[in-house]
Amino acid sequence: MIATDQIKMMGTIIDIYIDSSKAKQQAATIRELLTLYNHRFSANDDSSELMAINHMAGIQPVRVHSDLFDLISIGKEHSLAYPSNLNITLGPLVQSWRIGFSDAKLPDEATIDRRLRLTNPNHIILDQGLGSIFLKEKGMSIDLGALAKGYIADKLMAFLIKDGITAALINLGGNVLVHGTNKQRHNGLFYVGIQQPNQKRGQHVGVIKVNNKSVVTSGIGERQLQIGDKAYHHLLDPYTGYPIKTN
Predict the structure, then answer these.
(1) pLDDT for 37-67, tens place per residue?
(2) Fewer CB within 10 Å, N or C, the chain?
(3) H or E element at residue 210
(4) For the whole model, what pTM was predicted?
(5) Are 75 and 88 in contact (CB under 8 A)?
(6) In the chain, where are the structural domains located?
């Protein structure tokens, strides 16, 4: 049995494909898990588990679910790796720009400079014994947008594999994870199209054929802030606080 689902969540379109004897029930469970994970990891839901940490920045540690602790631990490690363009403490800057939201704006230079000073990953204090996280400076905030979708896809696929699927595809807005044999293709592979930047949806620069792998892309064409003749995209440079320069 094949079940497919499309869900608008996490600021993107999520596509699910499941080949299993109980595909419909599994697809329903995936919806429930997506809602749970969205509430756990979202930096755009003021009541989320992640935002509980951000609200207590500079005040006190917050005990968190093990999934959130694990992902922030991974994020801190890779934010401190050199050279790295990842920094999960860019939350103050992400919220200053708000690119991709209706209230997006160009922050002034003083705001960017001030908020850059709140983006030191060393100031994330992890207490594994207590399972707590503390942000040392008031005004700091964590944004897991660069990591959460991939982590969630892994969690969802692990559930599906344990629950006995034949094959599945999870697409969390450019984070694609596939498992098993695709019966709709003669070679058993899943075909993942790479969107041609600045072209209509469905125009591909290439197609990657995979199974039991993840394919992840991120581009500057989906979320932009247009001011006059200048476009600002959502991928921020952790060293300047402005959208990263690209050719």
Answers:
(1) 999 999 999 999 999 999 999 999 999 999 9
(2) C
(3) strand 204-210
(4) 0.92
(5) yes
(6) 2-40+148-216, 48-144
